[in-house]
């Protein structure tokens, strides 16, 4: 069953189209990653899905409810965590959650709060002031606050921005645990390792959906070829390669160069040239990574903000 099923969503602010005919489905229990440069329309799309914004064009449903007409029904089923979650810093974790429980009219408050604290491993810190928590714990509190009313869909907008790698990993373990329990998750992120932890990903740029599928499918469909170059004085080799036709990306990786192109024949010719001209330089086939694919998508397009 599709939890999210939206077609041709379009949103304009003034004369700028920030979401441009976006079509997307998310199945029950799936964790779908929403990727794309800053300002590409992820937040706006997520807000349309949870009924906070009305699209100018397009239609869709969330749990079968119409995104244009049934916002209230949708909101009840959705937990939405924004990029900049905020708490009462001078209240404890427990007090913050009590506030949320009352907001959603959850009863009995004490039990609901205790269950949520326990569920997210926050019980031992329940008396700590929210303002004194580290980024990772703040984020855990934010997640607790947005799953407290037992939503069936989580819409997470860059939930791990600015959080250290260990806390990010724990957060993702938590997301997988929740998805295992039947929750569906759409999560926007900038981090490649997080994209790789999603069942599927969708990549959006300038409001347009450029790719969607499993990480493997997105990499395969990008049609890129990658080689790894070994040898001495690779800075010179890199500079030469960058000028040659067929070479789209040259990136140093440790003591090697990672060279990527979409025209395999031209790329091979360019690499054969440098192999011939530079003593000791060798070239071997490499694997295209998700990061290579995203950099290819982004090349030529700067930040979309503005
Ligand atoms: P992302 O989440 O991918 O960073 P957003 O959806 O936040 O992208 O923004 C897409 C574009 O729409 C940006 O250029 C942003 O400045 C613009 N935008 C977002 N909200 C508004 C608004 N309320 N009014 C005008 N422009 C907006």
Biggest sheet descriptor: 6 strands, mixed
Q: Report the span from N to C terminus.
A: 38 Å
Bound small molecules, deduplicated = adenosine-5'-diphosphate
Total beta strands: 14
- CATH topology term of the largest domain: Rossmann fold
Largest sheet strand order = 6-7-8-3-9-10
Tell me the CATH superfamily of the largest domain.
P-loop containing nucleotide triphosphate hydrolases
Number of helices: 11
Low confidence ranges: 302-306
**Helix/strand-derived class?**
alpha/beta
**Total of domains:** 2
Q: What's the SSE pattern?
A: EEEHEEHEHHHEHEHEEHEHEEHEH
| Average predicted local confidence, pLDDT | 93
Tell me the strand percentage band. Answer: 25-35%
CATH class of the largest domain: Alpha Beta
Q: Helical amount among residues, as a percent range? A: 25-40%
Q: What overall form do the CA principal axes indicate? A: globular
Structural description of this entry:
The chain has helices spanning 42-49, 71-77, 93-103, 109-119, 135-147, 165-180, 192-195, 215-221, 234-243, 264-277, 290-298; strands at residues 2-13, 16-27, 31-35, 57-62, 65-66, 78-81, 153-157, 184-188, 200-205, 208-213, 225-230, 249-253, 256-261, 282-285. The protein is of the alpha/beta class and 306 residues long. The chain folds into two domains: 2-219, P-loop containing nucleotide triphosphate hydrolases (Rossmann fold, 3-Layer(aba) Sandwich); 225-287, 2-Layer Sandwich (Alpha-Beta Plaits), CATH 3.30.70.100. The chain has a six-stranded mixed beta sheet, sandwiched between helices. Strands 2-1-4-5 form a four-stranded antiparallel beta sheet, covered by helices on one side. Strand 1 (2-13) and strand 2 (16-27) form a beta hairpin. The longest helix has 16 residues, at 165-180. The radius of gyration is 23 Å and the shape is globular. The two termini are 38 Å apart. The model is unreliable at 302-306 (pLDDT under 50). The structure holds adenosine-5'-diphosphate. Adenosine-5'-diphosphate binds at residues 13, 18, 36, 38-44, 304-305.
